Input
Amino acid sequence: MARRPVGGARGQARRVRRGVRRRWLNWSRARRELKPAQYGNLVDYHIHTKLCGHAYGEPAEYVREALRRGLTEIGFADHMPLLHIRDEHLTMEPHELPEYVALVREMQERSFGITIRLGIEMDYFPDQMDEIWAAAAGIEFDYVYGAVHYIDGWGFGDSRRLSSYRGRDPDETYGRYFDLFCEAAREGGFDIMAHPDLVKKHGIVTSVPVDDMYEAAARTLAEANVAIEVNTSGIRKRVVEPYPSLGFLKACAREGVPVTLGSDAHVPAQVGMDFDVALELLSAAGIREIATFERRKLTLRAL
Ligand SMILES: [Zn+2]
Ligand SMILES: [Zn+2]
Output
């Protein structure tokens, strides 16, 4: 059963814990903000544009926020158009892809004094990858994120459809998510897997330990030569923590999986947001380098 309808003392205790964490994050905001110099070595590779229909503001406003924070390298990675689902609040239309590329190229040409990469966030649909890659042919991305937002056609990450969790077994949801995640890493052709444990977004919890899933996923990533990102947007969601969880990140560190960084900004103020938490997480996992990409070539940079 999903976490949302949980009642009784257990549910209440969870809600209280979540509330305390949320308040702590707000109270300590000013103290925890990184200094511009600390942002200097970091990148924010996961920035959306209004073309996707659920992000707001002009691209230049996102760039200015990055400059204000002291970031020296960012990348736009908007949602790749979905080929078989039409929803103006999910992704740009296929015919808008050239417009997206032109928008990012324009930002690169405006010499803001910051490195701007062209990325994309591509959904993993097991039977459509040839078609999806064909739609992206000829575009020189700096990196391509792979993302599992769908489990067998179910858009589990969609915050507008929380009721879709009703009647589903969290253990099965987790298991299926991680199967697809590993498949995507092996077969998707991606450089980075986005928000690696997105399945926890709405706070569902399993009745079984998930360590084996983390281990298997980390091994798969290492074998397939695919990086992951620490994505701070989970802090803004019901789960109130970054993706991935510390246990998953530690497994990735043990396997030598490269790690990059993204805020998943959908409004300008979210660029570089909560990167202090990301830095703590990276340090707790013993990670001292982050992965940067140019024309799909990975370079590690010391933190
Ligand atoms: Zn989005
Ligand atoms: Zn995503």
About this structure: The radius of gyration is 18 Å. The chain has a mean pLDDT of 91. Residues 48, 52, 54, 79, 266 surround zinc ion (ligand 1) (CB under 6 Å). The longest helix spans residues 8-27.
